[in-house]
Write a structure and sequence with these properties.
It is built from 15 helices and seven strands. By secondary structure, the chain is an alpha/beta fold. The strands form two sheets. Strands 5-4-3-6-7 form a five-stranded mixed beta sheet, with helices on both faces. A two-stranded antiparallel ribbon has the order 1-2.
């Protein structure tokens, strides 16, 4: 029985006349239709109830009707603003300013007597920090040409490295063009506008693109060393991916990163093919943190850790949409484990006590059992279909939490393991911002250039290096290598 062929009064009457078995068969068909409709209604209600707070949907999808805020963090009790011991950034006067202007007083403001010949008894000082007028300076390089008095041959001096054209822009202004276009995601046309407003010079779009390509060539060796580091490091690496429009098609940006290193790569595929060709996970034997996407789990040599921020959002959804108490208690348990680990770290402990491990694990198993009792497996369909049976969202989450208990609670056993995968999501945030500000990439080459430069910028910033300075170093032929990568840096030349 299907929705387009529900029983008519004649069908019901005929089944009644045929006897009990015909009536049961008719009712079974109606029950199947009702169950199908109930599942569709539940799916639509679930879809409508999802937002950025209880699912992985981005905040931009919430529209004008933002969900009511509900933070899972507990109040810290601290006042707003800088905390004791915080290093401030107040503007302070300098001892030796570059310029001094003395403002003289020539007449008494009280009796109007002349003060022209009176020496000043002191000065009240105020300092103004500002930029001097900036203009582009032109340096003309002249290579001497001389004829040898012995052999008569002509000789010419060498120009400095990088001086290759009769007229060209220098490395500083090219570094700033890359800085605006790649670091702040400003489109090419607006990058030109900024440069002409600042310096009264407007490099062409082709010049900005060429500067970005030159930057890519200079930073790629650094990124390759970072890539090898991510394969071999003992620190957990964070992995994630996000969609990216390239030449009108959906591509994917993949990230692997640590607290001090970032590697981004764009690929037309999302799954295992892309991860294999990028080449980090197939060789990795250490810990990887991810959101449970199936392709990550296909690398058995690595130690897997699941992102609990995703679990918290799903649990919030189940608690609100399905009103199941176990979900709220599981939220409290996961946050409690996180706080216990953070407290132990502050006390310079290297592990939680064994009894605390056992208590947390027992409570976890108890809540899973409660959840499974409230969400039994779905009944077998009347007609056997290929593939897995469709389950409710609470049942799917419970199965994941039960089957991957060790990956969920990994931070409890190893303090180096993070609670969530937010680091990878932060590293990918600039990719989404790039699309929001500048739109899609017209070519694959443009997307690859962005990922290479963005990887270098992110790594530099994580190591407290100023971005513009790092870009300038790269164009000068000496890109920035973090100190932990220095021994692996490729030799010059």
């Amino acid at each position: 029985m299907t929705l387009d062929r529900l029983p008519t009064h004649e069908d019901i009457h005929a089944a009644y006349l045929q006897g009990e078995e015909a009536v049961i068969e008719l009712v079974d068909g109606l029950i199947a239709v009702i169950q199908h409709l109930a599942a569709r209604v539940q799916a639509l209600e679930d879809q409508a109830a999802k937002n950025s707070r209880n699912s992985s949907k981005p905040p931009s999808s919430d529209g004008l009707k933002k969900p009511a805020p509900r933070s899972l963090r507990k109040p810290s009790g601290k006042k707003s603003g800088g905390q004791p011991g915080h290093k401030g950034h107040t503007l302070k006067a300098v001892e030796r300013p570059q310029h001094r202007e003395v403002h003289r007083i020539t007449q008494c403001v009280h009796c109007q007597a002349s003060l022209e010949g009176v020496a000043a008894s002191g000065y009240k000082k105020r300092q103004v920090f500002d930029l001097p007028p900036v203009t582009v300076e032109v340096t003309e390089h002249q290579a001497e040409i001389k004829r040898c008095p012995l052999c008569g041959e002509m000789n010419q001096a060498e120009f400095p490295a990088g001086v290759t054209e009769p007229v060209q822009y220098g490395q500083r202004i090219k570094a700033q063009a890359v800085y605006f276009n790649q670091n702040h995601h400003i489109p090419l046309e607006r990058t030109q506008e900024i440069l002409i407003d600042l310096y009264d010079h407007s490099p062409s779009e082709a010049t900005v693109i060429a500067a970005c390509q030159e930057m890519e060539e200079q930073v790629t060796p650094v990124n390759m060393v970072v890539k090898e580091h991510l394969i071999e490091t003992d620190e957990p690496i964070h992995c994630d991916e996000t969609g990216l429009r390239v030449a009108g098609k959906l591509w994917w940006t993949h990230v692997a990163s640590t607290e001090l290193a970032t590697y981004l790569e764009v690929h037309p595929k999302r799954g295992q093919q892309a991860l294999d060709e990028i080449g980090i996970l197939p060789q990795r034997k250490g810990t990887i943190v991810h959101d449970g996407y199936g392709s990550y789990t296909r690398y058995p040599d690595a130690e897997h850790v699941l992102c609990n921020a995703h679990h918290l959002r799903e649990l919030v959804f189940i608690e609100e949409q399905y009103e199941q108490e176990w979900a709220g208690e599981m939220i409290n348990l996961l946050i409690g484990i996180k706080e216990a680990v953070e407290g132990a770290k502050k006390q310079e402990q290297i592990a939680l006590p064994d009894q605390q491990h056992a208590d947390f694990a027992a409570r976890y198993d108890q809540l899973i059992a409660q959840g499974l009792q409230a969400n039994p497996p779905p009944p077998d369909p009347p007609v056997k279909k290929r593939g897995r049976k469709k389950q409710s969202k609470p049942k799917n989450l419970l199965d994941r939490l039960q089957d991957h208990k060790r990956e969920v609670l990994a931070l409890m056993y190893d303090f180096k393991v993070p609670f969530d995968n937010n680091l990878a999501e932060r590293d990918l945030r600039m990719v989404k911002l790039k699309q929001k500000v500048s739109g899609c990439f017209r070519t694959r080459e443009g997307a690859q250039t962005f990922c290479q430069i963005r990887s270098y910028i992110s790594t530099a910033r994580k190591n407290e290096q100023r971005v513009l300075e790092a870009l300038q170093m790269a164009l000068d032929g000496a890109p920035f290598y973090p100190s932990f990568l220095q021994p692996r840096a490729a030799p010059s030349g």
